[in-house]
Design brief:
Dna Ligase, domain 1, 19 strands, Rossmann fold, 4 domains, alpha+beta, eight-stranded antiparallel beta sheet, 408 residues, D-amino Acid Aminotransferase, Chain A, domain 1, 32% helix, four-stranded parallel beta sheet
């Protein structure tokens, strides 16, 4: 068999490895010639991953048996559409994929199915007669962006106008959603729908940079800090999403906020969590969601059994930098060999210009840390913070060490 993997980020490395372990030839298409997954594939295509015609032509020419991606909701649209046109297997059809990838469509279905979410308006221009019905603060989002790009919180009309224009430029369709802000702690839910039944696999806290108007995640942590009432609502919400969106076999990533026992769903995707999320799930619950995604793509019932030891504390910490030109890492590999860092994964190459922290795509690396207690995790973190550096071309440590606070 032959598979065409779309997008070549960190999770696609694991995807490609597992495809090849199954005896499947793995081709890779990515918009960057320096895609981190490129060294692992059997054949590479440098192409815009959102160019459906180009992706379709590659699939035809190479006579692939299926297309696949993980951890990328906008790319999933391309996979679903091309698969549908060519009659190739895919776990989600294009119409459903549009519903789960477009934030306006998603909000409509949330409201129609009693899924708790904030009030919003959908508009293709800054219509204050409509937006004026909402209460500040307001959150502005491009309807079809990713990695928190263009998501800003506006406290007043002046900020609203500025952020709306920014979101409008970022959105490929030009669509923007404006919604009321819900104050609370963010929770990330990883689930899998099997034969229409939603199974919650892992629930974690998402910690974000304390910025007045941006929402950039710097850490995912397990176990989650949430009440039993919130956990019960999470189970109900996942099933409502599966029912409301007509999902039969699919991964789910649900992002929500909670304030006490009150919950508001931000959004969800019919995909596995991005970047290193598959590692957090693997070490917290023992389940291999990458393998399960391959299973459902091939029409098999996904294997949700535990495949690895689960730990009491599992944390994905993301490394960000001050602005500068990246040169090299120091200390990470040594601590990984010692077992202080469970896994370390760089996602940028030497010479990359780092812009600071504006969205999740500004990460330069990530590390997974496992521990038997919060105290043990904090002890490891102190050793990491005192040892590692991210050096720029001029010999300066530009790493944001302040974004590695100890757990409480």
């Amino acid at each position: 068999m032959k598979a065409l993997v779309i997008a070549g980020g960190l999770p696609q490395i694991e995807l490609i490895k597992q495809l090849k372990d199954r005896g499947i030839e793995a081709l890779l298409a990515d918009g960057s010639p320096n895609a981190v997954a490129r060294p692992y594939c059997d054949k590479f295509f440098h192409v815009d991953v959102f160019d459906m015609e180009a992706i379709k032509n590659i699939a035809i020419k190479e006579k692939v048996d299926f297309l696949i991606t993980v951890c990328a909701d906008q790319v999933l649209l391309v996979v679903a559409k091309v698969s549908e046109v060519l009659g190739l297997p895919c776990y989600i059809d294009y119409e459903t994929c549009q519903n789960v990838s477009d934030k306006i469509r998603m909000k409509r279905i949330f409201k129609a199915n009693g899924i708790p979410t904030t009030d919003y308006v959908e508009t293709d221009h800054l219509d204050m007669d409509v937006i004026g019905k909402l209460n500040y603060p307001l959150v502005v989002k491009p309807v079809d962006a990713y990695s928190s790009k263009g998501v800003r919180k506006a406290e007043n009309l002046e900020e609203l106008k500025q952020y709306y224009e920014e979101a409008h430029k970022i959105s490929r369709s030009g669509g923007v959603i404006v919604e009321e802000f819900f104050a609370g702690d963010e929770i990330s839910v990883d689930a899998f729908v099997v034969n229409g039944k939603a199974h919650v696999l892992n629930v974690t806290n998402s910690e974000k940079v304390k910025d007045k108007d941006r929402f950039v995640i710097f850490r995912g942590r397990y176990p989650v800090k949430a009440s039993e009432a919130v956990m019960r609502q999470i189970e109900e919400i996942c099933q409502k999403i599966a029912d409301g969106f007509g999902l039969v076999n699919a991964p789910l990533l649900v992002q929500l906020l909670h304030n006490g026992d009150k919950v508001s769903v931000l959004e969800f995707c019919a995909r596995t969590g991005g970047n290193m999320k598959y590692l957090l799930i693997k070490y917290a619950s023992g389940v291999d969601v990458i393998g399960a995604t391959i299973d459902i793509t091939l029409g098999k019932e996904p294997d949700l059994s535990k495949k690895t030891k689960s730990y009491h504390v599992v944390v994905n910490d993301f490394i960000y930098c001050q602005p500068g030109v990246f040169d090299h890492f120091e200390g990470f590999e040594e601590l990984e060999k010692e077992g202080i860092i469970n896994e370390f994964h760089p996602v940028r190459i030497k010479g990359t210009e780092m812009r600071g922290v504006t969205s999740s795509s500004d990460r330069i690396a990530g590390m997974n840390i496992v521990a038997d207690s919060i105290e043990q995790y904090n002890e490891k973190l102190r050793q990491i913070n005192n040892t590692v550096k991210v050096m720029d071309a001029e010999g300066n440590d530009i790493m944001r060490h302040d974004l590695l606070p100890e757990l409480k």
